[in-house]
Amino acid sequence: MARIIIFICAMSAFIMAGAETFSYRFNSTPLPEAIRQIMENHPDLDINFIYNELENYKTSATVDAGNAYDALRQTIGLNPVTVVKAKGTYYVEALQHGRYVYSGRAIGRDGAPVAAATVMLLAPKDSTVLTYGIADADGRFKIPCDRTGAVAKLYCLGYKTKYVDCQSFAMGTIVMDENAVRLGEVKVGGDGALLYSDRNVYLPTQRQKNTAMDAIDLLRRMAIPQIVVKLAGNSVETTDGRSVAIFIDYARASAEELKGLRTGDVRKVEFSYSPSDPRFMGEMNVVNFIMQKYEYGGYTKLSADESFFTGLASDVSVYSKFKFKSMTYDLYAESRNINNHHTGSSGTSSYLLSPDGETPFWAERKQTLTGSHYVENTVPVTFRASFDSENFQMKNTVGFTYTATPENDNDGTVGFSPELFKPSEYNSEKNSDVKTVSYYGMFYFTFPRRYNLSVYPSASYTLNNQKSLYAADKTVIRNNAREKANDLNIDATLRKDLGQDHYIYLSGFGGRTEYRVRYSGDYPASDRLMTAFAGATLKYGYYTNTVSADFRTGLRYQYHKTNDHLEKELYPFGTVNVGWSPSRSHSLNLTLNYSKETIPDNGKSPNVLKENELLYYRGNPDLSSSHMFSTSVSYSWNALPWLSISPYARFLGLFDRWTPVYSSYDNGHAILRSYDNNGNHLWTNFGISATASFFDNNLQIQLMPRQDFYHANGSVPVSYNPFIFLGAIQYYLGNFYFSGFFNSPLTSLWSNYDTIIRSKSTFEVQAGWSKSDLNVRLTVSNPFRTSWEYSTTESKYDRYADNMTNYDTNAHFSLRLSVAYTFGYGKKLQRGDEVGGAATGASAILK
Asked: 190-204, 483-497, 705-719: lowest mean pLDDT where?
């Protein structure tokens, strides 16, 4: 029996050895290259083809065949190419010989590419099929054809069939309307990410969408390697510390909109380094949520968050949407309420004094917090009306936000060494209310000959009232301010596609902001600050799935007027971005940027206010914008179906930056803080982000270590080199999910202030249950910490220094209960792109 088995095995091995096998895996490989690869591996084959006829066709086939004919047919796939064998020679020939080439790009109404769309070229008289092609992952296609004036027929599952009369061979961008059909759930494995030269595309799993409370929470659960979501404030930035602009279906999203997003309708998330679409308004590092489309109807989403053991921290919101025909209406309202007794600061500040010309000496002021009370109530209400047609899109949003802080009180003890003032108790009381009315518009036009135009107007009006009182022993300081602010802005971009791979766009922008501030109390004064600006940007870009590059340059003119003081400034700016992606598993991106850092308006007031017994402060209308240069390089690699790795490095330099300066004041009895251009700030970092999934994506782990190097040279040089680590683990079990998040102490050296901040580490454990449109979650934060200490700050200048401890609820033990529920009415509506609360306006009140 054993011999029979050995014999059978030997014969099987012999037969397999004698059989010729063909095994290949292609990924967007040009068809001639794929055939050539087969020929190189099998030199005995005689394959005849014309390279130029086939170079416009690509293949992503997986080939596993036992003979050459089947291997060639599998390689060709759905391309309009024939294979004929005659007298031992294989002839590979295109159906059309390619005297002309029809090219274009198919996208959906949301701007997302229609991957794998079939494009058939029909004879104009009898609609017979001349040839056809398949769009690639970016919706692009090139189809050789021997006829002019063909009719293109485009169709794809989930989209309505579209016919286009080909007036030219460059067909431009073709918009396809989606069918109101719910498609079956597509299960995405470990390759839920596609890497391109200019962007990375991520497909969230159904578990991630079902368990996320909002858009930011979905980003955290997706563990996208290029970005990090911090626990404190849910802020989103790149792993190397750059800001991230977030859009929903190509429209800029506010924090409230992201909170209201229905995550179950997210089709995919794109991270773009330097997007070419003008609707992104020239932003770098963009996250764009692409949402599922519905036909008509509406739904309402209710969300609630309630925290325990840290005082009152409540957030309740309602969002409703209704769509009918081409119009969509959104209404959003929210109430955020905070009431706690755990905010404030304690510490020591030092002042170099020289009263009446005496020998300078250091005086120390020690402040100890013994009690506090902080109350804040915010109510945003927003309404938006949107229109969407084939060649025109419009969104008009109006909003009102009211934020009241009736109590921001601290009390404690204050002492001095030497004893310039008698040790005593102190009391600090502050209150404010801010009312903002705002408008934001978006108008997007698509024109013939591959032109499109986007226009973004915005306006806001703000009333801001603030009062403060400081009392200690015989010292009483009253500072009150009333402010009226208005802001107008417009941004317009005209884009022209040049052929299939090139584009150019011209942008114009301008705006005007005015602040009228009246100070009362012990130091009455008034300010009128006005800033106007205008500029233009020219950008050229080249894009293919493998290589992309864009070059942007522009000029900005600024006009600053502070009371009677006038400043004008004209400066250039520019950006270079280059991307390379040899396959959908690798991408490399390099960015260079030069611009100027604008001065905040509240740093320009010439008026002097008093902060405490020894410190006065004012702005400086003569401040100049700082030169800013940065460069970054990042690499993304889907190493295995379950592992993605993204190392990076970055350098940022602020040159001749604005920074605080301290000088003698009140005949040497006090110190005056102002601002001046002084020294440089240099920041270099490098790190890596790694994400791994196990057990059919039920377990996900993300690790993000980073090393920072800071150096500032000014009146007192400072160097600081902190190490930062962030980690996350998530596990799914049926309808239940469990998560853990850890942030090491987030320490840094502020760019404009020579201040080192060291925050406490934060740790969260979550347990939740989600099903259909209901999601319930319990979060335990910092379970072993009873201290209210949140961070420390340390500053040192030639005439001033401080070392402060700051208290807050963010690093203390807490429980948070979160619930989100959505109910629908009508029939299948576009869910996503929710309107959110409008932001409050900026302020020029001196601080």
From this structure: 190-204
